[in-house]
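Q: What structure does this chain adopt?
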Amino acid sequence: MKKLIVFIGLATATGLLVVGNQSCQKSKDDVLEANETMNLYDEALQGGNNGTINLATNLAFTQALPGLPTSEVINFKVGRSFFHTAWVMAPASTTAVDGLGPLFNTNSCNSCHIENGRGRTPFSQTESLNSIIIRVSDAGEDAHGGPKPNPDFGLQFRNKSTLNASPDGDVTVSYTEKKITYPDGSSASLREPSYHFTKLRGGAAFPQFYSPRIANQIAGAGLLDAISEETILSFADELDANADGISGRPNYVWDDELQQTRLGRFGWKANEPSVRQQAAGALSGDMGITSPIYPNPNLWGTALALYSKLPSGSDTPGEPELPEPLFSNLVFYVQGLSVPQRRAWTNPEVLRGKALFAQVSCNKCHKPQMPTGSFPQIPLLSNQVIHPYTDLLLHDMGPALADGRKDFLAEGNEWRTAPLWGIGLVNLVNNNSGMFLLHDGRARTIEEAILWHGGEAEKSKQSFMNLPKSDRDALIKFVNDL
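A:
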């Protein structure tokens, strides 16, 4: 087993800040009023009574659930240490965190999810991708209905490697500006990305399909894990029975640990069933670190032949590089993160934007309110009324955002509704000039993200564009308060 190294560090990681409001409990029937009216219960407490922290600094996404028992705070800190620590090539004197690669995209969770926030797009056309990964696949399906791995690259393109290996290749991105004109004559500029792949290892043919995926903020992931399947499925309307043009549908994916098909809820295409598998997949694909769920190196084709016998970071033969209980500590850290409280929910302009958000039907996919179910892993997450602004379902977003790559039931033009909670603090947390929204970070502002919407969201986008500028600004101000 790995030697236990815990960096106690920041006091703010203890989650000892006090939530702003503890309102009296009501029955779920009383509090879960129709989302269509935006008549919400304790809407400032986005993570519910147990999952909200009152903090609006660059550490707003790093806080533990306020009521976490002391023993669990210790587990949270252990998980945090592995989230922040940079993995190194094996063998190394730092035996707790060696085993990086041999192929990887980054060397730590925090280097992509900086302070648990979002990644960014490159600053220049010559800069390699640092917090965007490239999913790849070939035509067809694997044995469980998922994407078919490419024989040379598997399911992910790795643009970095350890000294004794060579990366899959290099990838850069350039942008073309695209002007959008509103009916009132004002305009905005969207940037359309183009990806360039070079130096492919051994002259391999590039996979048939690829899809850029930027690192998203992760605060509140445990609360999303705690939502019952029944609640998520209650939002689905695959055949558009109510004829509103919105037909969200679930993705069903393979759970590698349980060896069964389950509802997907994480990832840009709802292609992961749980925080636990999402974390294991990131360790394996992004950093080349083995875990109890994925105990074998993530190597394919010539890379498998060339690098499979390189030293690993396992302290015991056959043991994963991040074994139990340390892997579960990392999962617990992600699940135990609270959501920042809203800052200006009573501001008249924000309230006007809230009404406009519902008027143009944004709330039909970005569901403002729902309950969590029973979650024995972290009881504090159970039975909370939360405000994530997502339905965790797949929606057709139109050809402009389509990647053409199927992921289980998700088609190339379908994406999971992105949660909006915490979006107004993204710039503060990541100290970026842009917000880098949507699956590939192309949208630099909330306005740009709205203007990229199509498909099922086309009508809402057009309604937004037809609003007077003062109303558009109010709607954006409301979203920035989430």
